[in-house]
Amino acid sequence: MKRRSVLASLAASAAGGRAAAQEARQLGAGRRAYGGRSPEVHATRFFGDSPTPGTGASRTPLQDTVGVITPSSLHFERHHSGVPRIEAARHELLVHGLAGRSVAFSMEDLRRLPSVSRVHFIECAGNSGREHAGNPGETAQKSHGLVSGSEWTGVRLSTLLRIAGVQGQAQWVVAEGADAARHSRSIPIAKAMDDVIVAYAQNGEPVRPEQGYPLRLVVPGWEGNVHVKWLHRLQLTAGPAMSRDEAASYTDLMPDGRAWQFSFEMDVKSVILRPSGGHALSGPGFHEISGIAWSGRGRVKRVDVSVDGGRTWQPAALQPPVLDRSLTRFTLPWAWDGRDTWIMSRATDETGDEQPTRDRIVAMRGTRPGPDGFNHYNGIKAWHVTSGGQVTHV
Ligand SMILES: Nc1nc2c(c(=O)[nH]1)N[C@H]1C(S)=C(S)[C@@H](COP(=O)(O)O)O[C@H]1N2
Ligand SMILES: [Mo]
Fold first, then answer.
1. How does pLDDT run across 227-280, given as a tens digit for each residue?
2. What is the overall mean pLDDT for the chain?
3. Kind plus residue range of the DSSP H or E element containing 66
4. Is 78 in the pocket of ligand 1 (CB under 6 A)?
């Protein structure tokens, strides 16, 4: 859209300003030792009932976020046996197995080691699976809210493994959490030595309890389940542990009855967040389309947006920073003509992988009954904009 027409349509739609200068002046509130958000802001995580307390997930209100960092209080949660209460002063991380020697690191030990800070997304493998099943829910939060972005700070896993020493036969690292489920996942040694972070901080403060306080694994680009929270043990092994979470669940059933195992990387995906399901456009004219794209295989290279139901596509702008295996914000100026339409986004990552249509995924993987659909579903997401400006899911 040309700049002049953007401004013209905005000027036409903007309401007359109120005389700010005439508002009464009064002394503001005092200082606070720990800040909170404005009482006018109400975005919350969403969760339904769950059969047992402590299990289940809560979803990030993506439609209320901007940029690529999710406020820690709104980071999605997924836990299998609740949030354990852990005292950092007494917490230890044991590295053992096919190591040169067993080492128990205290939190203080970890703080003394060289640190890194990286911005990465974490996404549950089940995120947007209900799109596949055909019942995604009406908002972006319900359909795609099991992904969040944070800056994670901690020690490289490779640093800890080098300190403990890695025996020649060690091919895997089994990470275990201190929660009642003793959640554990196996990670190939090559990934462990590459970019995995043992994180003690998130967005500038200690990791939140729901995110794994005092210590969690961050495994850039890989399915959320591998990012073991409340991390207390790392065992070097010759083979994978075949734990419940990598054998019974987090495998991907194919139409022929066989299953994919260890589908670690999250595929390229995107979703338009503004406008998205539940929003109402105030009228025809200028609206910025804004959304997020991400890939577990590297940086997002491009995002194309269609505002005519997929007939034509335009390249969206990628808002810096565009980081490796991080949420990436895209925007497109849009002059809505007021007519009924469908808007959708299609991301491509730096490996050349392009987000597929739902039809293509269904052709490859079939459909099966069940409310939650498949893991690792990354189809193109469309929103319906009615002539009245209501935005609904398709
Ligand atoms: N110890 C432990 N780690 C865990 C889990 C768990 O239940 N226990 N859930 C996993 C799953 S399935 C996901 S998707 C991510 C979610 O991380 P978050 O709750 O910080 O968003 O944590 C993973 N790590
Ligand atoms: Mo998950």
1. 999 999 999 999 998 888 787 777 777 777 777 777 899 999 999 999 999 999
2. 92
3. none
4. yes
- Tell me whether strands 92-97 and 231-237 are parallel, antiparallel or unpaired: parallel
3-state secondary structure of 360: helix
Question: Are 330 and 292 in contact, with CB atoms under 8 Å apart?
Answer: yes
Q: Where are the alpha helices (DSSP H) in the chain?
A: 3-13, 107-112, 129-133, 140-144, 157-164, 189-192, 244-247, 358-365
pLDDT reading at 370 higher than 80: no
The structure's pTM equals 0.94
Rounded to whole angstroms, the Cα distance separating 393 from 35 reads 36
289 Cα: distance to centroid of ligand 1 (angstroms): 31
Residues lying with their CB under 5 A of ligand 2, a single-atom ion: 78, 124, 224-225
Domain 56-260 annotated CATH 3.40.190.10: no
The residue ranges of every structural domain in the chain are 56-260, 269-393
Q: Ligand 1: distance of its center to the CA of 249 in Å? A: 13
Regarding the beta carbon of 120 and ligand 1, being less than 6 Å apart is answered no
Kindly state if the Cβ of 76 falls inside 6 Å of ligand 1: yes
Cβ(330) – ligand 1 distance below 6 Å: no
Whether domain 269-393 has CATH 2.60.40.650: yes
User: What is the model's pLDDT at position 276?
Assistant: 98
Does the structure show a pLDDT above 50 at 369?
no
Residue range 204-210: mean pLDDT, rounded? 98
